[in-house]
What does this fold into?
Amino acid sequence: MKLQFAMDTLTTDAALELAAAAAPHVDIIELGTPLIKSAGLSAITAIKDAHPDKIVFADLKTMDAGELEADIAFQAGADLVTVLGVAGDSTIVGAVKAATKHGKGIVVDLIGVADKSARAKEVVALGAQFVEMHAGLDEQAEDGFTFGTLLTDGKSSGVPFSVAGGITVDTIESVQESGADVAVAGSAIYSAPDVGAAAAALRAKIK
Ligand SMILES: O=C(CO)[C@H](O)[C@H](O)COP(=O)(O)O
It folds into this structure.
């Protein structure tokens, strides 16, 4: 299972600092949606230039204009770009077309999708490289939140999947046991007093 670090920060300088500390311990470096909205596509280029050996993940969460939005992110240096699973099939097909042109991949983020397992099968058939079983930051803050259903949805989907939803050092083993291909951790790393140590601790739990 790969480890993905989601950087939900707002400036390129902050992202470069976080990425430098975490990079030795992670496989995929994600530019979070707020970072791309705040700093622009140049942040993708800065991270790829600093970490050419890492998979750079641009969390665009595209809802429309799939081909155009994915194309500009791949041009900026992204290796993987997200499209929302609630988007129409034509948006996902457009984004996949751009990924094919660049030799890169589309990840479909299933945030807000009611039947994640069923939609996962559909979007992988449309050409997505994998899906993200995702409970967002707002959903995580709701009373009674648990990411257990993300794991069962991933397992039952039968397609390659990542899991994102407040993963910590105490829960990452259950993510691996679910059969996930990628564990996504954001706040567990970027909010830690020692970013490198937090990333290393997560990595150490992966068998
Ligand atoms: O995409 C996101 C929010 O929409 C986050 O980057 C993702 O949820 C991972 O962060 P965390 O581990 O803090 O949940």
